[in-house]
Design goal:
This protein has six helices and 13 strands. The protein is of the alpha/beta class. A hairpin with a 2-residue loop joins strand 9 and strand 10.
Length: 237
């Protein structure tokens, strides 16, 4: 099983932590880098190969991870010379990829079963499988519905439920055919293209632990929770 880890971003929202370190290497719990946790989880789930897409401070990631043998995996690298979006790096490495593979951001903490996501993708026969998570958004104001200058409905401080992308995907190589290597390709563009041609992605719903470490507050939360959740995140690793 093959995983592609996206680790080429600059981590602007996480500054100043990412001034000298790429975001996937910021430490969690003073013991492990995020990327180390991800690689240990992938190895425990049965993944034997990983390709890491690197860009900003990528040589530090390459020096830290090496060939992946310390986690029992074979790791290689693809370098983004310019930002290519979420899916753009995959188009440049088509010759390295099997027909189905896992794609994930390199800065998330979750106890998601990565092997099950890939298995569900293979079973779905969909072009793309998106791991999704339920999020509730609280609106701190009274919400008005208006028509022709009149208020026709009112809801006091409602909550809205959404399913959001976790940044983990099952993908088929054939889904990327037709896109030009070296040009940016965002996750949003790919999904809209698939929907536009009536080839809907599969949703893999998950309700366990998931934290996207994108902002300083998220990073502080990850460190605060890691001690109590370490056995959950690194079970079997």
């Amino acid at each position: 099983m093959h995983a592609v880890i996206l680790a080429g971003g600059k981590g602007v929202r996480l500054r100043p932590y990412t001034t000298a370190l790429p975001k996937p290497l910021v430490p969690i719990g003073d013991q492990h880098a995020i990327l180390e946790i991800v690689l240990r989880q992938l190895a425990a789930a049965g993944f034997t190969r990983a390709t890491i897409a690197i860009g900003h401070l990528g040589e530090i990631i390459r020096a830290y991870v090496g060939d992946g043998s310390q986690w029992g995996m074979a790791v290689d690298y693809v370098t983004e010379e310019s930002p290519l979006g979420t899916m753009g790096p995959l188009v440049t490495m088509m010759d390295k990829l099997p027909e189905t593979f896992l794609v994930m951001n390199g800065d998330i903490l979750t106890d998601l079963d990565y092997a099950d996501v890939l298995g569900a993708h293979r079973a779905s026969d969909a072009p793309l499988t998106i791991a999704t998570y339920a999020r509730k958004v609280h609106i701190d104001f009274g919400v008005l519905t208006t028509t022709d200058g009149r208020v026709v409905a009112f809801t006091e401080k409602p909550s809205m439920d959404y399913r959001v992308s976790m940044g983990v995907y099952g993908l088929s190589r054939s889904t990327l055919e037709g896109y030009t290597p070296g040009l940016p390709l965002g996750f949003d563009e790919l999904v809209l293209d698939l929907l536009g041609r009536g080839d809907a992605p599969h949703a893999y719903e998950f309700d366990g632990y998931w934290l996207d470490i994108g902002r300083p507050d998220d990073y502080d939360q990850a460190n605060a929770e890691f001690t109590t959740r370490k056995s959950l995140l690194l079970k079997g690793a």
